[in-house]
Amino acid sequence: MKSLYKNLFSSLLKLRMTENEIAKKYSEQEMRCPVHLSIGQEAAAVGVCSNLELQDQVYSTHRCHSHYLAKGGDLRSMISELYGKRSGCCGGRGGSMHLMDPSVGMMLSLPIVASIIPIAVGAALSLKLKKKKNVISVFFGDAAVEEGVFHESANFASLNKLPIVFVCENNKYSCFTKINERQPSEDITRLAKCHNISNLRMNGNNLINVYEKSKMIIQQIKKKPEPFFLQLDTYRHVEHCGPNSDDNLNYRGKSELNNWLKDDPLENFIKFLKGENEYDQKIVNEINDKIMIEINSAFKFAKNDKFPNPASIKKFVYA
Amino acid sequence: MPKIKRLLSSSEAILEASDQMMKRDNKLILIGEGINDPKGIFGTTSNLFKIYGKDRVIESPISENGITGVSIGLSINGFKVLLIHQRVEFALLSLEQIINNAAKSFYVSNGKHNVPIVIRMVIGRGWGQGPAHSQSLETVFSSTPGLKVIIPSTPYDAKGMLISSIFDPNPVLILEHRWFHFVKGDVPKRIYKTNLKKPNVILKGNDITVVASSYNINEVIFCSKILKNFGISIEIIDLRVLRPLDTEVIFKSVKKTGRLIVFEIGNKIYGVGGEIISMILEKDFNIFKSSPSRIGLPDSPTPSSRALAEKYYPNSSDILKEISKQLNVNVEVQEKIINLLLDKIPENEIDVPNPEFKGPF
After folding, report:
1. pLDDT for the residue numbered B360
2. Residues B178 and B236 in one domain
């Protein structure tokens, strides 16, 4: 297996296995914060983040597990945060919607859907002012473009030619409300066009394609700074918030559901590897075992970790 | 009064502080709507872009929430930002970024991301600005932990508190009264800080404590001069810092006088006065010799017409009446006080600054 494929596969599998484990353990009611799982949407995070250097930064939303891990965020700190423990990446002050690990450039995640976007644009402005050749990636969902601050941010980034990729993961639903009840078209690149921002819409469940396209985009931005808008159509496999399926509520059409569940990023990538004659079961097993050990160790660590000291409640209100 | 060495208006003091800090720290960025236009936010940003360039003095699109987020993004990447709103009402569009992110990033990141941004917001009355152009909204901001909220009243503090705010590692919101920009006073040339922690006692007295802020201080000073003729001495406290609210100075003063009036810049109901009086009562239930009072804006939006504004804004005579009430001043003396007030106060329209209140102070 080529090292590129091995890295992409490892990263993708780690995201999937980690979130499966969260889903499995969630009913123990020890992770007492909302979780917005990325299962089904992981190719976006892995495809884009695999092209980023350490100094390139990532900003994300409430659905941030995948971006945090794909950018290299520490697994133990993430799981500890979900358990509300002291060693959590936010010291138990944020929970699953605020994951961050600035040491690897995973800077900030925020739950109000477009709230992170202007902050990422500010980070891109800081690169311009420092004359650095890095790039900012900001991930958000299809509903984020419905909030005004997306447009304020896109306009500002375009006007100032800032080095930023707006990665819009279109999973079609804002909680239970479908995009066609919220927007006149599912082609969200129309909004990039009106801000004079180069753009591309593609299927977001094909990892190698997302990887290749975002590689070109990121290289281009590093050569000539200006924003890019990348729409990745995808689908979440479980409920908006929580570990279970909620398709018993029938808000997603049967045929749509079946088609999209079949278009699974992990299965797609395995199919791709097999087609390239690059699939090696032994290596896959090794990767799988290694990740499982890491995950088990992270959960064990989080469970044994101490809660934050209640006396520290007012710490970090002011610097 | 100490001899004045260097007379500047507050707007000149703010411009000087901004210029000196821009020169001192090349990581300081100015951003705002209209900051590079010919009027330069009451003259407080005039021509700075010509000295420091448009990369550091950024004329912004009309995107209040957006540029607040941009400022936070800059600040967690090594910059300091001074963001300016020509009217506080524009900042309402950025409450999402201010309250969710500026105020909480340091906390939620467990101390990893502090947000050193300063947001100047112009408040206050004048020339029929009306319901959505002359509010102060101080409690909207002051109720959020993680923010510092300050409200200077003198040119000396205008400069010193702005410099302290820029040095401060936290988000600091500055409420600047429109008319305070014209007030003149002594301002040293050097870079100096004044504290962002405490109110100042600006006049010592024994009979009653009057807490006020911003432009209202001038009304209270005016009252103190009149009351002196009647042997009534008031202690005046300039509130200066709305958050974190330190009531120690006020508590000590009330402990001495036993009486308190809080003269609000904003609405009386759900105002700063209610908070101050509660905090004092929580410390000492028996502290007051008479019921404390709040003077603030009535429970209606701000009208535009000067005929309505006349009744809307409390003034010196309202303060004098309240003081007389608390001190049980007899009716005859009360009349004399009001007559002296009418005698002393210049004929003045409600919608322009009182010429008596321009200083120098």
Report:
1. 66
2. no
**Predicted pLDDT of residue A152:** 98
* B18 & B68 share domain: yes
> pLDDT confidence of B65, banded at 50, 70, 90?
very high
Chain A: residue whose CA lies nearest to B168: A319
pLDDT in tens, A265-288: 999 999 999 999 999 999 999 999
For residue B352, the model assigns a pLDDT of: 84
Say whether B72 and A155 touch across the interface (CB within 8 A).
no
Domain that holds residue B66: 7-186
> Both B312 and B287 in a single domain?
yes
Count of positions (residues) in chain A: 319
Report whether pLDDT(B3) > 90: no
Interface of B with A (CB under 8 A): 29, 55-56, 60-61, 63, 65-79, 96-97, 100-101, 105-114, 116, 145-146, 148, 169-170, 244
Q: Bridge partners of A198? A: A228
Q: CA of B346 to nearest chain A CA: how many angstroms apart? A: 45
Is residue B71 within a helix (H) or strand (E), and if so which, with residue range? Answer: helix B64-75
Side chain identity at residue B167, one-letter code:
F
Q: Please answer whether residues A134 and A56 qualify as being in contact, where contact means their C-beta atoms are separated by less than 8 angstroms.
A: yes
- Give φ, ψ of B3 to 5 degrees: -70, 135
Six-digit token pair at B356? 């008596």
Q: What is the distance in angstroms between the Cα of B90 and the nearest Cα belonging to chain A?
A: 14
Instruction: Specify the amino acid at residue B212.
Output: A
User: So what's the pLDDT on residue B2?
Assistant: 62
**Residue type at position B202:** I
Q: Are B201 and B236 spatial neighbours (Cβ–Cβ below 8 Å)?
A: yes
CB-based burial, B164-179: b 16+ in 10 Å, e otherwise: bbbbbebbbbbbbbbb
Same domain, B139 and B245: no
B100 → closest Cβ in A102, A115, A122: A115
- ipTM computed for the complex: 0.98
Is B192 part of a structural domain of the chain?
no
How many domains does the structure of chain B reveal? 2
Q: How far apart are CA B175 and CA B178, in angstroms?
A: 10
Determine the average pLDDT of the residues in B77-82.
98
Q: In this structure, which CATH number among 2.40.10.340, 3.40.1010.20, 3.40.50.970, 3.20.20.60 belongs to the domain A3-298?
A: 3.40.50.970
Contact A318 B68 (CB under 8 A): no
When pLDDT is averaged across residues A161-178 and rounded to a whole number, the result is 98
B74 vs A contacts (CB less than 8 Å): 122-123, 125-126, 129
